Amino acid sequence: MPVWQPMRLAKHLAHAGVASRRAAETMVAAGRVTVDGEVVRDPARDVSGEEAIVLDGEPLPAAPARRMVYAVHKPAGVVATARDTHGRPTVVELVPSPTRLYPVGRLDADTTGLMLLTDDGDLAHRLTHPSFEVPKTYVARIGGGPVSGAALRALREGVDLEDGRTAPARVRRLRPDVLELRIHEGRKRQVRRMCEAVGHPVRSLQRVAIGALTLGDLPEGAHRRLSDAEVQRLRG
C-alpha cells in the first residue's frame, strides 16, 4: 500500500517545493523528470511518493511516512496514559500498533468517550495547547435536581474554581438532568468541577467530540483509523 494516496506527478513535484504546478508540468513535458529510472513526459502520471523521482539528475526527497491517528471510544476504568504504574488498563492497549502511539490530552478514568492516539507530535500539540482553543464537547448526566437557568448562565459565563475562573462554555440542556458542554480549556477534571461548583455533581460523563470530529457510533472499547481528510480537518 502506498504511503500517500496516488497523485499526479506534477502535483507531487509542486508539493515537494520544486516549482509551481504549472512549471512542474513544463519540466515533466520537457523530459527532465525520471520515475524509477524511466523518463516520464506525462504530468498526469500517478505516483505514490515511494518511487525514486529524479529531476535534472537530483533525487527528490522520499515522502515522509504517513502519521497514524486513531479515534478510540475509551471505556470507564481505562486510564488515558501510555502506561500505568498501578497496572490498570490503558487506552493505548486498545489499539494494537507496530508504531508507538501516545494519547492526545486526557480523560479521567471514570469518563468515557472520544480519545485520539497518534504518533504525530505536531498534531497532538495543536489539539491540546490552550492557544489553539480546540473545542471538546461532553455530555454530562448530573445530580442535584433539574438544572436552573442561573446554573446555566454561570457555566456559560465562567465558573470560579480553585485554579482560576474558567473560560465561558457553550452549554445546552438536553434533558432536565443531562447537559451538553463545549469547552476549549483542558484543565484536570474541568467539566466535573464546573458542574460541582454550580450545585450539580456529575453522575456520568462522556466526551462526544474533539473539534469537528465526533464519536459517532464507534462502540465502547473500539477504535478506527482516521482518514486523511479527517486528520486535515483536525489540523484546521
Provide a descriptive summary of the structure in words.
The chain has 236 residues and is an alpha+beta fold. It has three domains: 7-59, Structural Genomics Hypothetical 15.5 Kd Protein In mrcA-pckA Intergenic Region, Chain A; 67-133 and 213-236, 2-Layer Sandwich (Alpha-Beta Plaits), CATH 3.30.70.580; 135-210, Alpha-Beta Plaits (2-Layer Sandwich), CATH 3.30.70.1560. Helix content is 21%, strand content 28%. The protein has six helices and 17 strands. The chain has helices at residues 9-15, 21-29, 121-128, 149-157, 190-197, 228-235; strands at residues 7-8, 33-35, 38-39, 46-47, 53-55, 58-59, 69-74, 102-104, 112-118, 136-142, 160-161, 164-165, 170-175, 178-183, 202-210, 213-214, 223-225. Strands 7, 8, 9, 10, 13, 14, 15, 16 and 17 form a nine-stranded mixed sheet that branches. A four-stranded antiparallel sheet has the order 3-2-5-6, with no helix packed on it. It has a two-stranded antiparallel sheet with strand order 1-4. Helix 1 packs across helix 2 (21-29). The longest helix has 9 residues, at 21-29. The protein starts with 6 loop residues before the first strand and ends with a helix. The model has no long low-confidence stretch (mean pLDDT 91).
